[in-house]
Write a structure and sequence with these properties.
The protein is an all-alpha fold and 328 residues long. The chain has one domain. The chain contains 13 helices and no strands. It is globular and about 60 Å long.
């Protein structure tokens, strides 16, 4: 691949990641909004069934049924299970943690992606970008305030471990996406993801769909996970449709972004989800970040912007050198 093609692919990958992150922010807002009346596995199953329909339509656009065939079913299954774990752990925490804080904790994922891309994908990440990643980690620590204990916290530290686990599995998923995307179309990978969500959600329904376990716990997170199924109210049905559409958009756009560009290039743009989460938290629940959260956001966004500018400068330098020295 020439340097010009790499720059073009990076630009397109960034556009896809921004669209995907917007869809994720809307999805997270809807999940939190509906978490008080419906079980998580019902929301996931419904959105995945609807999302599967949209994804199959994209399959037809990108080449038809033949692109669903793969010679790496094991890795695609692993990728699907990783994203299922990432979603379930994050959404379970979302029931009790403010949207902006839960999103902030989860945002160790783009930092992990940048670091994991070095040993797993062989991508080059220089010391300055590593320094920016460290600054981003510092921002996440400040936002989560691990030094607060006891009555100073409304939510226990263990609950914050859930989005951290989700972030790690999400990072591994995106690294796998980069690897598998060389042979698989984004729409096909989105179908595999939706199928994994459907299977896992049905298993939850078979085991806990009647709510038999929900009354045994006081934790709102576990109740959200194990609550009995409820037929959606008429006003909520369109929200379920919105979840399904967003699910298809997320699966396709993230898959396409990590297929087209280096993980270290597109991952920092996932930080755009932080101000989006703050926006929804303010509009829907009247939540605004306190000073530590604001400082953490500034560090994370600053580190992401630095990584992006560093990558663009490096790529443009290679293009200029190639134009001056054609045999470069």
């Amino acid at each position: 691949m020439t340097a010009d093609q790499k720059l073009q692919n990076s630009t397109v990958g960034i556009a896809f990641i921004l669209i995907g992150i917007l869809a994720i922010s809307i999805n997270d807002m809807l999940i939190k909004f509906l978490s008080g009346g419906y079980p998580l596995h019902q929301l996931v199953l419904t959105r995945s069934l609807i999302g599967l329909g949209f994804s199959l339509a994209l399959v037809q656009i990108e080449g038809g049924w033949r692109i669903l065939k793969t010679d790496q079913p094991g890795l695609h299954l692993l990728r699907g299970l990783l994203i299922v774990v990432a979603n379930l752990t994050f959404f379970t925490a979302l029931a009790v943690i403010p949207l902006a804080e839960a999103t902030a904790v989860f945002f160790v994922a783009p930092l992990m992606i940048t670091l994991l891309s070095i040993p797993l994908l062989g991508e080059k990440v220089g010391p300055m970008r590593i320094g920016a990643v460290v600054a981003g980690f510092m921002g996440v620590v400040i936002m989560t305030r691990p030094w607060e204990v006891g009555g100073e916290r409304e939510v226990g530290l263990l609950v914050y471990f859930l989005p951290v686990l989700g972030a790690f599995t999400y990072a591994l998923n995106n690294v796998l996406t980069r690897f598998l995307g060389a042979k698989s179309k984004a729409s096909a990978m989105a179908v595999y993801i939706q199928a994994c969500f459907i299977v896992v959600s049905l298993l939850f329904w078979l085991v806990a769909g009647d709510g038999r376990f929900a009354n045994k716990f006081e934790s709102e997170s576990l109740i959200f996970l194990l609550r009995a199924w409820v037929w959606p109210e008429s006003t909520d049905r369109w929200l379920f449709v919105g979840l399904g559409f967003n699910s298809a958009v997320v699966g396709y756009c993230l898959g396409q972004a990590y297929r087209m560009a280096d993980a270290a290039t597109v991952a920092p743009f996932e930080y755009v989800g932080l101000p989006m989460a703050i926006f929804w938290g303010w509009v829907i629940w009247g939540e605004l970040p306190n000073l530590p959260v604001a400082i953490g956001i500034a560090l994370i966004l600053g580190s992401g912007l630095f990584v992006f500018l560093r990558e663009r400068k490096k790529t443009r330098k290679v293009i200029i050198e190639k134009r001056v020295h054609p045999r470069y």
